[in-house]
Amino acid sequence: MAGERGSMKIILGITGGIAAYKAAELVRLFVKRGCEVEVVMTDAATRFITPLTMQTLSGRPVRLAQWDDMAHIDLSRGSAAILVAPATADFIAKIAQGHASDLLSSLCLARDCSLFLVPAMNRQMWDNPATRRNLAQILEDGVHVVGPLEGVQACGETGMGRMAEPDEIASAVLSALSPKILSGKKFLVTAGPTLEAIDPVRVITNLSSGKMGYAVAQAALDSGAQVILVSGPTCLPPPVGVKFVPVASAREMRDAVMANVGGSDVFVGVAAVADYRVANPSSSKIKKGGTLKLELEPNPDILQEVASMENPPFCVGFAAETGNLEENARLKMKRKNVPMLVGNLAQDALGRDESEIVIFSSGAAKQLPRAAKTKLAAQLIEEIARAIS
Q1: Cα(first)–Cα(last) distance of the chain, in Å?
Q2: CATH topology assigned to domain 186-388
């Protein structure tokens, strides 16, 4: 079940605390990564964020009443996990002591899936000996705890007890649930566009958003790999847990790759690296007026250089074409001497959240139908894992 991320069901429980507003972003992140989210709210939680908000984001009715169709028994069936975020000190006490006084605590007691709690409370409540005892008990019982963080709290005080951020929570949950098919493997992934300077304020670039590369890095991380992500400029936050190396130009990306490729088991070149750069960029801003001619020279071929190493990692290339996809992808695969290449049509993929790809390997082509890039990345990681096993 956890391996099929596209069909993974998460029950998100929300208790009464000011940090409940973060649950909205948490639902969005899970849905974006292909999960089905069922929201359960305590009565106190509805004072901080409305059920209508959560229903709109999840696309499913929000559960509130304990006696609706034996929900406390049935809801957890077929679910990968129950996640309670925020989890108040009172709710943690309920779980530690086995109480079932509302729908959410009943669900946690009657579950047959993993349970994750994300504490959020005042620093003094977090430090209270009773809370510490309850926390020790739920950890001993096998409950997963994410956070809390130290920082400024709603009451104005500063200390431990601040709820973890949604991206950190989602990554922790999905990583824990995913089969560790790449445990012990080291991945080096490139992502995003490169910027090639014309002058100090103008560049040549492309429409790559970096979404596919970041999704591949996240999927490899979820599967147990150690991941280094070398990325050109994007608007995306790097996945929590990767070693992140930001770069701008193709030459900077090449240098970063060669500095980090040692010991890598897999290199995935997802970045849309500019094939050419300006031969003589101006050191000052070029003033507008008349025509402008630029002399271009080729950039280094990062994928080919890595594939040509004496003991190269398993190399996976990407080919964004505008037509004749299979023919062009096969030619690129042969020219660069890589065992696997992912092809797609640029006009259907660049900058979008969804894509349709074809995975080419020796003598085979596997087409993956249009889906979220997060789902495609997870499927690609499974193909890579099979190829290197």
Answers
A1: 21
A2: Rossmann fold (3.40.50)
Q: Residue 5: its pLDDT value, please?
A: 43
Separation of alpha carbons 257 and 261, rounded Å: 6
* Token reading at 58: 């999840």
CB atoms within 10 A of CB 378: 26
Superfamily of domain 5-177, CATH level 4: Flavin prenyltransferase-like (3.40.50.1950)
DSSP letters, 249-264, are SHHHHHHHHHHH-TT-
Instruction: List strand residue ranges (DSSP E) for 68-146, in order.
Output: 81-87, 114-119, 144-145
Residue ranges matching CATH 3.40.50.10300 in the chain: 186-388
Q: Please give the Cα distance from 52 to 67 (Å, whole number).
A: 20
Instruction: Count CB-CB contacts under 10 A for residue 389.
Output: 7
**For residue 65, which amino acid is it?**
A
| Angle value at C-alpha 329, between 326 and 334, nearest 5 degrees | 125
| Contact assessment for residue 160 and residue 126, using Cβ atoms and an 8 Å cutoff | yes
CA distance linking residue 245 with residue 269, whole number of Å: 14
Q: Quick check: 360 and 330 in contact, CB under 8 A?
A: yes
Residue 207's identity, in one-letter code, is L
Q: Higher model confidence: residue 333 or residue 151?
A: 333
pLDDT tier, 2 (very low <50, low <70, confident <90, very high otherwise): very low
Q: How far apart are CA 284 and CA 279, in angstroms?
A: 15
If one counts every other C-beta atom within 10 angstroms of the C-beta of residue 74, the result is 12
Q: Whole-prediction pTM value?
A: 0.79
The pLDDT of 314-333, averaged and rounded, is 84
Catalytic positions, please?
155
Average pLDDT over residues 275-282: 94
